[in-house]
Automatic annotation (TrEMBL):
Record keyword Nucleotide-binding present: no
Pfam families the record matches: Methyltransf_11
Keyword tags: Methyltransferase, Transferase
The protein's name in its UniProt record: Methyltransferase domain-containing protein
Record lineage: Bacteria, Bacillati, Actinomycetota, Actinomycetes, Mycobacteriales
Compositionally skewed regions (Low complexity) per UniProt: 13-34
Length: 344
């Protein structure tokens, strides 16, 4: 599928960050593949919740987040890598073997492989459903990809196995982040690098949730007015969206300060640790846009809106990268990335 036959929906900007409209406060929706007892147990077992929720999302996740494996998302994934690994440190590309931790549908690693960052890779996730989709996506692209169901706090590979470990919007799902980073360092070869992107900052998460909650309330109120009924999704769909968002709140465990991520990576044994952040004004626009899109019937906004939303986000991202990053504290941006190296 090419970039021309997908709407460039603005929600690609958000990565896989928390759904801010959880403020609706509804109860989690049942996983169609889980029993009622399992869903109730998930409220008290975060790893079970991760499995149930991500299995539930697996087959529709790419559509939900406007994920593709064409040039649009290849450029997006490579852009995250380039933003945290400067050109002068990329002379060894491509890495021979890479691992994606918490792979979801494989968005980050598959697009990085296509961009020339790595030759082959392995995908892991706590969710069997996600691993299945990620491997299928890799095979469909003709890539050398294998997959395992795996806990990020106990990665099932030998020491010194990988040249590169990556992850996108995964660390905030892991109960013990520092333990997971120790595992990452263990499975890396000496001199190997890890890159984690798309993690929500503490400050960014506050304004994203508040802006999106306000947008959700205004949109669902205004569309009740006479003459605007066609702009309102059926109530059962709105309720389902709120319930899904509430379940996301169970599996989203952390937000981060950049200095905190650097400390954890250093404590895990990494050297050359650094962080970078992105999306400031882009996030302030992107989250309300995404929330508004979720409040109206699918297809109601049309191609013109999609182009406006995507171009607005890319323009503001440019302003953030070229202006605000020189003025605004790193922790005020929405997304934070971290990289480090295993000592040689």
């Amino acid at each position: 599928m090419t970039s021309t036959d997908r709407e460039p929906r603005s929600d690609v900007a958000a990565g896989a960050a928390p759904r801010p409209d959880v403020a609706a406060g509804a109860a989690p929706a049942p996983n169609p593949h889980a029993t009622a007892e399992e869903v109730e147990a998930a409220r008290h077992d975060t790893k079970l919740a991760q499995v149930l929720y991500h299995d539930w999302e697996a087959e529709t996740y790419d559509d939900k987040w406007s994920i593709s494996y064409d040039q649009r998302c290849i450029d997006y994934a490579r852009g995250r890598f380039d933003a945290i690994v400067p050109d002068e440190l990329q002379r060894e590309l491509p890495y021979d073997r890479a691992l994606e931790l918490g792979c979801g549908t494989g968005f980050f690693l598959l697009n990085l492989v296509q961009s020339g960052v790595a030759r082959r890779g392995s995908v892991t996730d706590l969710s069997p459903g996600m691993v299945k989709v990620a491997v299928r996506n890799g095979q469909g692209l003709g890539l050398d990809i294998d997959g395992k169901v795996a806990d990020a706090e106990g990665i099932p590979y030998d020491d010194d196995t990988f040249d590169l470990v990556v992850g996108h919007a995964v660390l905030h799902h892991i109960p013990d982040v520092e333990l997971s980073l120790r595992e990452v360092v263990r499975v890396l070869k000496p001199g190997g690098r890890f890159v984690f992107a798309g993690e929500p900052t503490t400050t960014g998460n506050v304004y994203a949730r508040n802006l999106s909650t306000l947008t959700w309330r205004v949109a669902t109120t205004v569309t009740k007015l006479p003459g605007l009924e066609s702009w309102r999704r059926p109530q059962e769909e709105l309720d389902e969206s709120s319930r899904a968002a509430a379940l996301e709140a169970i599996v989203d465990l952390h937000t981060f300060e950049p200095a905190e991520l650097e400390r954890m990576a250093t404590n895990a044994g990494a050297v050359e640790v650094r962080t970078a952040s992105e999306e400031f004004t882009a996030a302030m626009l992107g989250w309300p846009i995404r929330t508004f899109e979720a409040s109206v019937p699918p297809g109601r906004l049309g191609w013109g809106w999609a182009k406006f939303a995507f171009k607005s986000w890319t323009s503001l991202s440019w302003v953030d990268s070229n202006l605000w990053r020189h003025v605004v504290p790193k922790g005020w941006f929405y997304n934070v990335m971290v990289t480090g190296v295993k000592p040689s």
